[in-house]
Write a structure and sequence with these properties.
heterodimer, A: about 15% strand, B: two-stranded antiparallel ribbon, PB1-like (chain B), AUX_IAA (chain B)
Chain lengths: ~575, ~300
């Protein structure tokens, strides 16, 4: 507090009105600012003046870094001395779909080393698409005595041994959230590493892990962690075991079941039903792996307060879903598999008037011989029944312009519209026309649109629409679309709030790439793969814009003049030094 | 119509892919009491590596490699009677489903990439098309993305965790198929080489192969009307069953289907019920897709005038 006190004494010397107005005591300012949470607001605040910049940096306890290479850990530590919680994102989003080479980077270790020195009291670490080794996890576990919450989403490079290290050493752990990672699962013994004296866990999510866990250890752990409110099990946990766990944790707010398909006796069924009926405060339900329709009724009493139902690993039929939804009047978020088909989505429209988010995943994405799946009819049905819908992720095999136009008329408040017509470049199946008008309707009608993913047969007209109308668009994902550079130029020339642009397999070339020269510094990143961009174009971009990192990922055997995968991002840390040989920084 | 004739197509599957192996406990086989293996046309793909292709139609890859490893099988198939083989060589520019035999076999250039380009206009060249990673396929019960399907890397955009989860524990496809069966419809896609879009037929509503073929002919006639004149086929009103057969046998097309294991089979070998049980999709394929097939087929069609 030394420097701010000095400042204060200096300020209190002057006496005129304006000085008094501007000599707002720093401690008060810091106190006020400490109540400000959203990182974007904090960024704005820090730009007001030097005093506010300082007050903000001293009062900030959580830092969000959307691209781990945009800044270095040293710079972060220098600016923010009091951080307790860090959120870090690493690889480009397309790494989720295997488009980024294995050893690309985004390793957490260098960050941990700096944090151990500068933030010894670090409590929370939330990572997305980062590479983490077991050694790093162990280092984390022993370096931060106050460590409380670890969340890993879509990360890779570690095994259950790393989790064992966390369990062993983090005495104050409240949250362990392992989601959708590439974990090398060596078995479930890591759960036994939580000491007998350990009781603080509130959030435990290991749904990602595939192997059997030590159920005995889990049961004891759940039994002694009385504050547990989130428990998400993996598939190896049976129904009977679930029932035993729930007996000890009726106050769960979020439950992820294990496998929902064991053969139960009548008595076991009734026990399960009765235990679940005690879970009245549950607001989130997931898991339900291999759910058998006959056991779903056991859930009904627990669903009355459900706001988020994740059935995306349960291949339910339409009738089963309809019956379940009849018990979920308060549902706001629903994730399903397309096995429920249009009829199931009709039931959604009928039973869930408060629905705000819908995600429909394909059960058989690589299998074209579908006998089931969802179509435009299902989406329409939901839009008629759920006017508050604002987030949709929809995988389908057919769509029409007319349907989308109607959908956005019914639900004009879309903030996230992610439509994936799974066959690349497929037109409106009724009129055979491109899907331009569909997305045109989306951007014209949904003025609050922040995120858009397009698909189907699209000409440059789609991008003209986007550039002209999508004034709040921040994230755009494009695949197998467009006709010429003009399309991408429209987007880069419009969309004032664009932050992330990811493009694959589109006929956009150097002219398009270079048209965004001035724009890229206001964006987080640009990804272009399998487009028509050449090395020369990338070199030119790198030369003109020194504060951008322009990285080209080489493919074996590809033409040396073509830039097959390009990743461009702004950075104050300069070009990165840990790029593998296949990644060229220009 | 077609009897359950046993065929021993030998020497075809030199290098079967791991994922092409039959899943153990095929419930359909057990249920129908038939020994499917005896009647099954097992055709293995030549190798597990699929070359990078420019053509995005996944079926072309599978059929090209399938056919090149199965030359004899196809010719043998043509020899048999009573089967739905659109035998005949020749073809010319645009495809007509029931265009009769023509003079030359100048159809080879018109592969699917040509016909597809009309549909996928303006899309970037050369998407990377490779087969789905074998490790994922091998990991599970085998009912994963059929190996015969070439896939675009990273498309559809599904996270690896979800892909692997669904792959190793497929969402009860068989049960669903049974349920669908019971509930009264069994829609399968029908594609035709050269047609810009696919159709769907409900196999349940047909009593047998005859009805299916008439329906298909009606469905795809719109792609042939334009060409009929230039190829000298008169109006197709009142196309009788026998005339249909003549046309089918006289034309350049072969009706094939993909079964549950991902193998491409000739339509007509197995009893109708067995066929509807295991047919997942139909393809009206140009017989000249079958490399080496054309010469024999041409002979055939000339003989059938």
């Amino acid at each position: 507090m030394g420097s701010s006190e000095l400042k204060r004494s200096k300020d209190s010397v002057s006496s005129d009105e304006s000085a008094r107005r501007s000599s707002f005591p720093d401690e008060v300012l810091e106190r006020v600012l400490s109540l400000l949470k959203p990182h974007r607001d904090r960024s704005s605040v820090s730009l007001v003046c030097k005093d506010w910049y300082n007050a903000e940096r001293w009062s900030r306890t959580h830092v969000f870094i959307g691209n781990c290479y945009s800044v270095s850990p040293e710079i972060v530590a220098r600016r923010f001395p009091r951080i307790r919680s860090v959120t870090l994102k690493g690889k480009p989003r397309f790494s989720d779909f295997n488009l980024v080479p294995e050893n690309w980077g985004a390793d957490i270790h260098s960050w941990l080393v700096v944090f151990a020195a500068k933030y010894p009291f670090l409590e929370e670490l939330r990572l997305k698409r980062m590479a983490i080794s077991d050694e790093s996890l162990e280092f984390l576990a022993i370096s931060f005595p106050n460590f409380k919450a670890l969340s890993l989403l879509s990360c890779d490079g570690f095994s259950t041994n790393g989790l064992a290290a966390i369990a062993t050493h983090c005495k104050n752990l409240t949250e362990l959230d392992i989601q959708e990672n590439g974990v090398y699962d060596k078995g479930g013994s890591w759960l036994s590493c939580f000491p007998e004296s350990f009781t603080s866990l509130e959030v435990l999510n290991f749904a990602n892990l595939t192997s059997d866990i030590n159920f005995d250890a889990l049961e004891k752990l759940v039994g002694r962690c009385k504050s547990m409110r989130v428990l998400k099990l993996n598939r190896s946990v049976s129904l009977e075991q679930l029932q035993r766990l729930l007996v000890n944790a009726p106050r769960l707010a979020e439950l992820g079941t294990g496998s929902f398909s064991q053969e139960l006796t009548i008595r076991e069924y009734e026990e399960l039903e009765s235990t679940l009926s005690n879970c009245k405060i549950m607001h989130t339900l997931s898991g339900l792996w291999d759910a058998k329709g006959i056991y779903l009724p056991t859930l009904y009493p627990a669903c009355s307060n459900l706001t988020f139902l994740n059935l995306s690993y349960a291949a339910l039929q339409s009738v089963e879903l309809a019956k379940l939804l009849a018990h979920c009047p308060r549902l706001k978020r629903l994730w399903v598999l397309d096995t429920v088909e249009d009829k199931g989505l009709e039931a959604v429209g009928l039973n869930c008037p408060l629905l705000e988010e819908l995600r429909v995943f394909p059960a058989d994405p690589f299998d074209d011989e579908i006998v089931h799946g969802v179509t435009e009819a299902g989406f329409l049905a939901v839009s008629f029944g759920c006017p508050r819908l604002h987030y949709v992720l929809y995988f389908c095999r057919q769509m029409t312009n007319a349907a989308v136009a109607t959908i956005v008329q019914n639900c004009p408040d879309f903030t996230h519209f992610r439509l994936c017509i799974m066959n690349p470049g497929q037109p409106d199946y009724l009129t055979n026309e491109p899907m331009d008008e569909a997305f045109g309707a989306v951007v014209k009608t949904c003025t609050k649109l922040q995120r858009l993913s397009v698909s189907g047969l699209l000409t440059d007209l789609t991008f003209e629409y986007i550039g002209r109308y999508a004034k709040n668009l921040e994230t755009l994902s494009v695949a197998f679309a467009g006709r010429s550079d003009w399309g991408m130029q429209c987007v880069l020339g419009g969309c004032p709030k664009l932050r992330k642009l990811e493009i694959r397999d589109c006929p956009f070339g150097n002219a398009a790439l270079l048209s965004g020269l001035e724009k890229y510094e206001s964006m987080r990143s640009l990804w272009m793969s399998a487009c028509n961009v050449t090395m020369n174009g990338c070199r030119l971009l790198a030369r003109e814009m020194p504060r951008l990192n322009v990285e080209v990922m080489k493919e074996d055997g590809s033409d040396d003049t073509q830039a097959y995968k390009v990743y461009v991002y702004r950075s104050i840390a300069g070009p990165r030094r840990d790029a593998p040989p296949s990644v060229l920084t220009l | 119509m077609s009897k359950p004739v046993e065929h021993d197509y030998i020497g075809l599957s030199e290098q079967p892919l791991p994922s092409m192996e039959k899943r153990s406990g095929d419930t359909n086989a057990e249920k129908s009491g038939l020994r499917l293996k005896d009647t099954e046309l097992r055709l293995g793909l030549p190798g597990s590596e699929s070359p990078e292709r420019e053509d995005r139609d996944q079926n072309v890859l599978s059929l090209k490699s399938f056919v090149s490893g199965a030359k004899r099988g196809f010719s043998d198939a043509l020899d048999g009677g009573g089967k739905w083989v659109f035998a005949g060589g020749s073809g010319g520019g645009s495809e007509g489903l029931f265009s009769p035999r023509r003079g030359g076999n100048n159809n080879e250039g018109n592969d699917l990439s040509g016909s597809d380009s009309g549909l996928k206009d303006g899309v970037a060249p050369k998407p990377l098309v490779v087969q789905e990673k074998k490790s994922q396929v091998a990991a599970g019960n085998g009912n994963t993305a059929p190996a015969s399907k070439a896939q675009v890397v990273g498309w559809p955009p599904i996270r690896s965790f979800r892909k692997n989860t669904m792959a190793s524990h497929p969402p009860k496809n068989d049960d669903n198929a049974e349920a669908k069966f019971g509930s009264g419809c069994l829609y399968v896609k029908v594609s035709m080489d050269g047609a810009p879009y696919l159709r769907k037929v409900d196999l349940k509503i047909y009593g047998g192969y005859k009805e299916l073929s008439s329906a298909l002919e009606k469905m795809f006639s719109c792609f042939t009307i334009g060409q009929c004149g230039s190829h000298g086929v008169s109006s197709r009103d009142g196309l009788s069953e026998s005339r249909l057969k003549d046309l089918l046998h006289g034309s350049e097309y072969v009706l094939t289907y993909e079964d549950k294991d991902g193998d491409w089979m000739l339509v007509g070998d197995v009893p109708w019920e067995m066929f509807t049980n295991c047919c997942k999709r139909l393809r009206i394929m140009k017989s000249t897709e079958a490399i080496g097939l054309a010469p024999r087929a041409m002979e055939k069609c000339k003989n059938r005038t």
